[in-house]
Amino acid sequence: MTKRSSYHHLPVSELQNAATPFYYYDLDLLHRTLDEIRRHTAGLPCRVHYAVKANGNPRILKEIASQGWLGTDLVSGGEIQAALDAGFKAREMTYSGVGKTDREIRLGLTHDIGCFNVESIPELEVINAIAGEMGKVANVAIRTNPDIDAHTHKYITTGTADNKFGIPIEMLDHVVGQAIAMPNIHLKGLHFHIGSQITTMQPYVMLCETANRLMDHFDAMGIHFEMVNVGGGLGIDYEHPDENEIPDFAQYFGVFKRLLKLRDGQLLHFELGRAIVGQCGTLISHVTYVKENRGKKFVILDAGMSDLIRPALYGARHLVQNMTTTPGDNSSLEHYEIVGPMCESSDVFAGDCLLPETRRGDLMAIRSAGAYGESMASCYNMRPLPASMFSE
């Protein structure tokens, strides 16, 4: 009988002999998460886009595309092509990013993608010019910087006045006027994105208030938007992934249902990434050595920051579990520093981690790694990129 852990039903004995490190994806959880999103958006005139930057694994993309009702949020030409290859419809793609190149803009226009989320006046001018050369009209939304602090890590905050993203509200009248006047631009609406790993609803409440105020302002000017895009950023529970496998979509979508005043015929767009794939992915690794230095015990894994950079880059905390020990075995708990093999002092997954006695060869799980894990992996120290395995 296959020994299974108490978390995500990971098949421990099957994974024990696999070459590590690799990402293991629970596709059943992915599908259940998508089902919950669809359930809580029923009756809401909206389009949900999967933010490909969270995880661009081809199998993951195809699983999401096969649902048939999600669009994509993209930030590079490579992501546009990956989404096309996975079967997503071009007309349901939104293309964000502050530094779109001419080549990437041409790629989007060639495939008639649904919308460019425009970040600056120079970008708007370039898109208009390239669209004119190609005999196209580009659909655009103006990304507005609402100066809302979501109180997340400074590297994943995107909606304050100090961030590089979007156009300040005080410039919006001018930019909207320019967009309307451009012959090869079709202005569809406004776009917002205020940050990532947001776990309280107050920033979204503030976003609704700002969006309502702006739409009222432009309605008074005779300018009516056909869509409003509120971005994504909904966080997941990194500390208790088993208790909270699926984010609280009822509360999240409920904020917009209650507070955002959509106009007749207006479509609401969401761009969710981490909330969709974050909990379905686990980084699997073996213990290479256990060593002790001056009273501190180090568990050295064969996975490193090249496989999962979030702890080193953001100081992020992921739950680390020993899959070889019996689940719930607390008979001999010890404090360990969980580290990788790389020549960097920042190559640390968890400090002062309380685990059952851990030995060389034990199989370790670093949880909640489905978002910004594999997608940010690198070949630093000339290490190979991590492989991936799936539950079915």
Question: How would you characterize this protein structure?
Answer:
The chain has helices at about 10-15, 25-40, 60-65, 75-85, 100-110, 120-135, 170-180, 200-220, 250-260, 275, 310-315; strands at about 20-25, 45-50, 70-75, 95, 115-120, 140-145, 165-170, 185-190, 225-230, 265-270, 280-295, 295-300, 320, 335-340, 350-355, 365, 385-390. With about 400 residues, the protein is of the alpha/beta class. It folds into two domains: about 10-25 and about 280-390, Lyase, Ornithine Decarboxylase, Chain A, domain 1 (Beta Barrel); about 25-275, Alpha-Beta Barrel (TIM Barrel), CATH 3.20.20. The strands form two sheets. Strands 1, 11, 12, 13, 14, 15, 16 and 17 form an eight-stranded mixed sheet that branches. Strands 2-3-4-5-6-8-9-10 form an eight-stranded parallel barrel. Helix 5 links the parallel strand 4 (about 95) and strand 5.
Short note summarizing the structure:
The protein has helices at 12-16, 27-41, 58-65, 77-86, 102-110, 121-134, 172-181, 202-220, 249-259, 274-277, 310-314, and strands spanning 22-25, 46-51, 71-74, 93-95, 115-118, 138-145, 167-168, 185-191, 227-229, 267-272, 281-293, 296-301, 320-322, 333-339, 348-356, 363-366, 387-390. With 392 residues, the protein is α/β, with parallel strands linked by helices.
CATH architectural designation of the largest domain:
Alpha-Beta Barrel
Structurally, the number of domains stands at 2
Structural class: alpha/beta
Distance between the termini: 18 Å
Number of beta-strand segments:
17
Q: Let me know the largest β-sheet.
A: 8 strands, mixed
CATH topology of the largest domain: TIM Barrel
Give the overall average pLDDT.
92
Could you name the CATH class of the largest domain?
A: Alpha Beta
Strand content: 15-25%
* CATH 4th-level superfamily of the largest domain: Alanine racemase
**What pattern of helices and strands is seen along the backbone?**
HEHEHEHEHEHEEHEHEHEHEEHEEEEE
> What Rg, in angstroms, do the CA atoms define?
23 Å
- The low-confidence runs, each spanning 5 or more residues with pLDDT under 50, are 1-8, 153-161
Number of helices: 11
Shape: elongated
| Percent in helix | 25-40%
